[in-house]
Each structure stands twice: as structure tokens, then as C-alpha cells.
């Protein structure tokens, strides 16, 4: 591509409203322009990088056996009523009415649409499993769009959805996507971690986020210094294996649950500082939650303790809810609604800080002197917000460290949340109807481009990894008025493209300093400069990443490039 007529408007100065590096560089290198708040146009260079990422994603999806489809951005409200999300989704959902006053939304995600597609056309187990994906524009009216295309209101996502007949089948589909995501982000040259994530109200701990490590990341990751353990600190559940059977637990020494007191009363009577709370761990006996331990230190007023139930995670956010929870029978499974005040849990929690107490059932039905190390095997701790850097990692290997991360991908085991509410059922081998078991998997394609730039840059500009660079080579003619330079660069331009390289050819009548500065800013991996030594058949090759410059004889050029 010749630069003279190319729409690649570079900026020398840092735009005032761009706070972070990737946003600044995407504007300065002429990759994007803002059209409205959180709404961007991609200029040619930006689009080429975006397409590179899209193609990597597409190749890995196809390789994993996923089938590409394209669904509409416009989605009728009825589908969202069916799933129950029209109300639940809130103001991030961009809604509008058509001329007949029918309600629609601009899709922020496509569970509803894909579920109806598959529901209508897949009826038998013989067609399953099946994973479908698309690369398409999504709309979310973000409360705070920022950092350029990192958090925008219109963005491109790759979203995939798997449909299986069994839970084990879902596990296989999920693992394939997990692996494909790992490949995608490796190929994009990103330094990332897959972290255990918070599955919200949808249950299970089977969700991972792919986090690009970066100081501007909006999520905090707790990871082990020694092992692969990594989790979003938002993560709620403690998933612990209780090493005793239910019978053994029930035969432990019982003690009388003290009457519940207010925090202030407790402070007085027990001399416990209410600030000296709270670390909660919920243990699970025979896969059922039966025990909450509370200890540690945290500002009570900030505390929201989340508890893990078999299929859903709930936040115990009011005293009533906490009491309700504490009175439930062993093996009780949620649901408890989330709401209201917070300092709550502290009331109940503080009473158990004295002893490790098991029970979570009727009054007078708790067990004293339960020893976490002896009686419980902790796999993960609840609510990593209460974990401090330097604490022992929950997997017992190494200590906890924190890092900021940018969520570029998210894989999620949905189960039957949508297939049940929207009737996506199939006939199994015995002719019985069953709901399909689903997973969903998203990659922020535009965000990934931004994340790449955030990790690959220096003071002069972008330093593209080869796989996502808009062009392979930047060919620069230092002086287009010099016939020898002009002829050689024109000849090289054609030859390099013939050899299969994508080439940006700076054939502009600009000063060399401008050309070099733009080349550094745009950041293509290799620069070939045709200058004074053109008459000797010598060009200069510069590696953007290292700054290394070598003079190369034309005959050697193709071998130098490989
Ligand atoms: P976030 O926590 O950043 O708001 P999310 O958890 O809401 O993201 P998902 O619903 O998991 O996002 O969507 C899948 C992927 O889409 C995310 O992992 C992210 O890469 C991308 N994405 C989500 N919201 C945006 C946005 N506003 N702008 C750009 N990309 C986004
Ligand atoms: Mg979001
Ligand atoms: Mg998120
Ligand atoms: Mg997410």
C-alpha cells in the first residue's frame, strides 16, 4: 500500500483525552478515530490489525471444530422476555422501538438468539455436540466507556456457544475452547493468564477469564508465586473438600449457638474489634455447603461475603438473609436473594470467630472445634478480596501475588440456564426429551488489539508482534526525488509483494525525519530503508523491536527477511 494516498493520519502530540498508552497510540498512529463517546471508527491500519486478530481467532475456532455463523445485531425483546433477561440486564442493554412500536435491543451478547436457532433446528442427540461461533459487533451502553476501544460501547466480539447432551460432553467442549483461547492469545504475542473467575448467579466454578497482565487492567488477579494457580479476586466460592463424611461431621461435639447480638454488643461483651474481621470460608460436605468459618481482618463496612451453593453463588447482604442461611439444614441448597445492607454478615460471623464452628443449621446445631487443617481440605478460599499479598496460595504452593489484568476472553459453563427457559431440548437415545447443556465463550476482538498495543510499545510508538502487525514491512524511500532511490524502492515494492509480504510503502514527499518518526510510531516489525546507497544496491534493514540496523545487499535481502 502506498502511503501518499493512504488514510493514516499520524499525530505528534498525545491527545488530551487519551489517558492510557494503547488509546494514545491508536489515535497517534492513525488506527482509530472516535465517532461518539465509546464509539470508534477503524481507519485502514487499525482495521488491518483487527482483521489479523479476527483471522487468528477464526483459524483457532475452526481448528477446534466450531462452525461460523452470523447472527443479527438487532434482537427482538420477546427473546429476552423468554430468557428473563429483558428486566435483568439493566441499562447496559441498548433498547429501541421500531416504527410499529415493537421493542428491540442491540445485542450485547447472543445466548437468546443462538438458543432459539438451535432449538428450532436441532432435535436429536445425533446432531450433538455442536459449537457455533460468530465474529460480530456488540453493543453495551457501558456506564463508563474509556481507554479507547478497550472499553467501548460498540465493539467486536467473537462469541461461541456449545451444545452438548451431557455434562461430560460440556467439559470436553469447554476444554477445547479453553485450549483455542490459549492458542489465540499466544499467537497474538500476549502475556496473559487464564484465571478462575466468578460465575455470578449462574453457578459452578467452571468459568475462566483470560487476563492480559497490565497495570491499566480493571481486574485484580491473585496468583501463586510457584504454581499455575490464578483467580480473579472477585471470585466468590470456596470450594473445599471436607475430609470427613456427613456422618462424621454430625457426630462431632455440638454446642449451643449463642443468641445473635449486634456488632456493638459483641464488641463490648467479647472485646472483639469489629474491624478485626473477616475472612470467610465455606466448606462443603458431600458437595453441600455446611460450614462457614470467619476470621481475618477487613473493614466490616466494606464486607460482602459471598457463599457458594451447589449451583449458584449468592451474596449474603442482609442480616435476615444471613440468619436464613445460618438456620438452614446441613445440605441445604440456596437460593437466597441478594440485596440491602452489608455489615450484616459481621453480626453472625463475629460469633464464630472465636471457634471454628461447623453447622449452618438450626440453633443449637453447630459443631465446635472443627479444625480446618485436620478436618477439611481447602482447595480454594472464598472471596480472595480478603487474601493479602504474601499469604499462602490456596493450592498450598507458593505465596499469593497480585497483578492487574485486562479481560480479553471469557469461557463459561452455562449448563441449562437458557435451554430450559427457552426450550432447547433434544431427544436422547431412549427417545426422552432433555435440555441441551450449554457453554458460552467470548473474545473481545477489538479489545485484544488494544491489549496487544498496551503490552507492545516503547517511547517512539507501537512495536507490533509480527502476527498482528497491519503490514509485515515498512518500505521507506528516503528521497523520492532521487531517481535511483525512487526506482529501486518501486522495484522492491513490487518484488516484496510478489514474494508474499504485505508492504506499506512510504512514497511520500516528506522529510526523512518525518518518515522515520511515523514508521516508529506505526511500529511495523521490519523497516527497509532505501537511501543514499541505492546506487550500490544496498538498503538498510531495521528491526523495530530491538532497534538493530543492518545494511543489506539486495541479493541478501530475501534471506535476511526470513
Ligand atoms: P468487562 O468485565 O470488561 O466489562 P465482561 O465480563 O462484561 O467484560 P463478557 O460478557 O465476558 O465481558 O464478554 C466477553 C468479552 O468481550 C470480554 O472478555 C471482553 O474481552 C469483551 N468486552 C466486553 N465488554 C467490552 C467492552 N465494553 N469493550 C470492548 N470489549 C468488551
Ligand atoms: Mg462488562
Ligand atoms: Mg468481566
Ligand atoms: Mg466476562
From TrEMBL:
Entry's EC annotation: 6.1.1.15
InterPro entries (UniProt xref): aa-tRNA-synt_IIb (IPR002314), aa-tRNA-synth_II (IPR006195), aa-tRNA-synth_II/BPL/LPL (IPR045864), Anticodon-bd (IPR004154), Anticodon-bd_dom_sf (IPR036621), Pro-tRNA-ligase_IIa (IPR002316), Pro-tRNA-synth_IIa_bac-type (IPR004500), Pro-tRNA-Synthase_IIa_type1 (IPR023717)
GO molecular function, one term: aminoacyl-tRNA deacylase activity
GO biological process, one term: prolyl-tRNA aminoacylation
Enzyme class, spelled out: ligase
Swiss-Prot/TrEMBL keywords: Aminoacyl-tRNA synthetase, ATP-binding, Cytoplasm, Ligase, Nucleotide-binding, Protein biosynthesis
Presence of the UniProt keyword ATP-binding in the record: yes
Compartments it resides in: Cytoplasm
GO CC annotation terms, alphabetical: cytosol
Enzymatic reactions: tRNA(Pro) + L-proline + ATP = L-prolyl-tRNA(Pro) + AMP + diphosphate
UniProt domain Aminoacyl-transfer RNA synthetases class-II family profile: residue ranges: 33-465
Domain notes: Consists of three domains: the N-terminal catalytic domain, the editing domain and the C-terminal anticodon-binding domain.
Subunit structure and binding partners: Homodimer.
Family the UniProt entry places it in: Belongs to the class-II aminoacyl-tRNA synthetase family. ProS type 1 subfamily.
Function per UniProt: Catalyzes the attachment of proline to tRNA(Pro) in a two-step reaction: proline is first activated by ATP to form Pro-AMP and then transferred to the acceptor end of tRNA(Pro). As ProRS can inadvertently accommodate and process non-cognate amino acids such as alanine and cysteine, to avoid such errors it has two additional distinct editing activities against alanine. One activity is designated as 'pretransfer' editing and involves the tRNA(Pro)-independent hydrolysis of activated Ala-AMP.
UniProt xrefs under NCBIfam families: PRK09194.1, proS_fam_II
Name assigned to this protein: Proline--tRNA ligase
The species this protein was found in: Anaerobacillus alkaliphilus
Amino acid at each position: 500500500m502506498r502511503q501518499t494516498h493512504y488514510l493514516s493520519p499520524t499525530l505528534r502530540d498525545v491527545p488530551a483525552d487519551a489517558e492510557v498508552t494503547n488509546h494514545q497510540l491508536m489515535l497517534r498512529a492513525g488506527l482509530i478515530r472516535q465517532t461518539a463517546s465509546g464509539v470508534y471508527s477503524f481507519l485502514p491500519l487499525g482495521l488491518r490489525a483487527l482483521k489479523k486478530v479476527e483471522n487468528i481467532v477464526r483459524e483457532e475456532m475452526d481448528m477446534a471444530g466450531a462452525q461460523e455463523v452470523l447472527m443479527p445485531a438487532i434482537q427482538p425483546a420477546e427473546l429476552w422476555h423468554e430468557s428473563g433477561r429483558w428486566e435483568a440486564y439493566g441499562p447496559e442493554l441498548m433498547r429501541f422501538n421500531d416504527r410499529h412500536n415493537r421493542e428491540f435491543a442491540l445485542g450485547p451478547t447472543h445466548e437468546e438468539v443462538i438458543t432459539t436457532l438451535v432449538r428450532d433446528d436441532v432435535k436429536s442427540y445425533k446432531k450433538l455436540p455442536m459449537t457455533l461461533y460468530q465474529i460480530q459487533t456488540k453493543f453495551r451502553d457501558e456506564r463508563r466507556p474509556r481507554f479507547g476501544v478497550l472499553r467501548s460501547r460498540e465493539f467486536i466480539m467473537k462469541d461461541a456457544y456449545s451444545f452438548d447432551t451431557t455434562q461430560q460432553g460440556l467439559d470436553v467442549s469447554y476444554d477445547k475452547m479453553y485450549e483455542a483461547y490459549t492458542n489465540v492469545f499466544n499467537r497474538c504475542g500476549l502475556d496473559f493468564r487464564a484465571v478462575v473467575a466468578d460465575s455470578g448467579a449462574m453457578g459452578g466454578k467452571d468459568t475462566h477469564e483470560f487476563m492480559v497482565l497490565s497495570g491499566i487492567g480493571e481486574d485484580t488477579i491473585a496468583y501463586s508465586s510457584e504454581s499455575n494457580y490464578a483467580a480473579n479476586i472477585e471470585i466468590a466460592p470456596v470450594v473445599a473438600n471436607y475430609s470427613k463424611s456427613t456422618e462424621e461431621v454430625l457426630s462431632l461435639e455440638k454446642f449451643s449457638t449463642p443468641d445473635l447480638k449486634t456488632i456493638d454488643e459483641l464488641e463490648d461483651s467479647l472485646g472483639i474489634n469489629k474491624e478485626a474481621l473477616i475472612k470467610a470460608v465455606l466448606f462443603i460436605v458431600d458437595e453441600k455447603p455446611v460450614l462457614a468459618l470467619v476470621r481475618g481482618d477487613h473493614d466490616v463496612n466494606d464486607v460482602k461475603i459471598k457463599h457458594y451453593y451447589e449451583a449458584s453463588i449468592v451474596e449474603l447482604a442482609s442480616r435476615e438473609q444471613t440468619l436464613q442461611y445460618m438456620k438452614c439444614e446441613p445440605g441445604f441448597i440456596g437460593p437466597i436473594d441478594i440485596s440491602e445492607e452489608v455489615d450484616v454478615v459481621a453480626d453472625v460471623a463475629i460469633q464464630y470467630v472465636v471457634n471454628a464452628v461447623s453447622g449452618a443449621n438450626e440453633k443449637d446445631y453447630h459443631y465446635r472445634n472443627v479444625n480446618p487443617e485436620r478436618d477439611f481440605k481447602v482447595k480454594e478460599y472464598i472471596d480472595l478480596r480478603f487474601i493479602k499479598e504474601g499469604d499462602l496460595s490456596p493450592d498450598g504452593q507458593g505465596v499469593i501475588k497480585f497483578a492487574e489484568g485486562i479481560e480479553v476472553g471469557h469461557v463459561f459453563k452455562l449448563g441449562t440456564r437458557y435451554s430450559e427457559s427457552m426450550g432447547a431440548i433434544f431427544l436422547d437415545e431412549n427417545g426422552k426429551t432433555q435440555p441441551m447443556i450449554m457453554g458460552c465463550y467470548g473474545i473481545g476482538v477489538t479489545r485484544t488489539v488494544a491489549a496487544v498495543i498496551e503490552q507492545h510499545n516503547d517511547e517512539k510508538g507501537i512495536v507490533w508482534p509480527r502476527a498482528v502487525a497491519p503490514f509485515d514491512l515498512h518500505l521507506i524511500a528516503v528521497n523520492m526525488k532521487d531517481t535511483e532511490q525512487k526506482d529501486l524502492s518501486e522495484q522492491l515494492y513490487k518484488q516484496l509483494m510478489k514474494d508474499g509480504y504485505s508492504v506499506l510503502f512510504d512514497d511520500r514527499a516528506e522529510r526523512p525525519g518525518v518518515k522515520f518518526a511515523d514508521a516508529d510510531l506505526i511500529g511495523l516489525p521490519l523497516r527497509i530503508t532505501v537511501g543514499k546507497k541505492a546506487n550500490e544496491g544496498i538498503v538498510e534493514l531495521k528491526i523495530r523491536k530491538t532497534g538493530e540496523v543492518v545494511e543489506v545487499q539486495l541479493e541478501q535481502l530475501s534471506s535476511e527477511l526470513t
